[in-house]
């Protein structure tokens, strides 16, 4: 029987934590690109494009994340394609993040007074120029706090990927707990790892919200 010392357990969990951070970054950056595309589609005057973006958001927000992982992981296998747990987790979480970020950013754009659009139109700016020069810079300020807040949800969402065998901190904790018969200690340390990741992000989101919304409250 292999004996695991406390440093061995910590090293195993830190390795899982590394993959949790890496997967979160991949999903957040990829989701940011997908979210921007969804934002542009939702703001499009083409009703077909806008409706397609709405259906995308409704699916990825409405279907459980675990079900989305199963559909991709097992669906591709049934079609004869071998897809790794990392590729599955990264692709699904990217699409998942894109749906939420796109909707967060759309809400930020639509929260601006209609007068901002009218002022941009009075300058004879085209639709894209209105967005790029007038609307999006203001919406960016509003969207930063909820965007940072969503990153916390995304980090915690990576735990679900352990079901398909991706070796993040939850999966590492399960393997170590089964080997050491110390589930309370192992999962306690895993929870501490999530706390060390999520608490600074939550704190940053609250501070950014106070910083960016305070001037608006004073006007």
Characterization of the model:
- The protein has 219 residues and is mostly helical.
- It has one domain: MetI-like (MetI-like fold).
- The protein is 83% helix and 0% strand.
- The protein is built from 8 helices and no strands.
- The protein has helices at residues 6-42, 47-62, 65-78, 85-110, 114-122, 127-157, 169-180, 183-218.
- Helix 3 packs across helix 4.
- It is flat and about 75 Å long.
- The model is unreliable at 214-219 (pLDDT under 50).
Fold blueprint:
Elements: H1 6-42, H2 47-62, H3 65-78, H4 85-110, H5 114-122, H6 127-157, H7 169-180, H8 183-218
Helix pairs in contact: 1-2, 1-4, 1-7, 1-8, 2-4, 3-4, 4-6, 5-6, 6-8, 7-8
Structure summary:
By secondary structure, the protein is mainly alpha-helical. It has helices spanning 6-42, 47-62, 65-78, 85-110, 114-122, 127-157, 169-180, 183-218. The protein starts with 5 loop residues before the first helix and ends with a helix.
Mean pLDDT: 89
Instruction: State which percent range the strand residues make up.
Output: under 5%
The helical percent reads: over 70%
- Choose one word for the global shape: flat
From the N-terminal CA to the C-terminal CA, the straight-line distance is: 68 Å
The tally of beta strands, per DSSP, is 0
The name of the CATH topology is MetI-like fold
Structural class: mainly alpha
Radius of gyration: 21 Å
Sheet having the most strands = none
List keywords for this structure.
219 residues; mainly alpha; MetI-like fold; 8 helices; 83% helix; 0% strand; flat; disordered C terminus
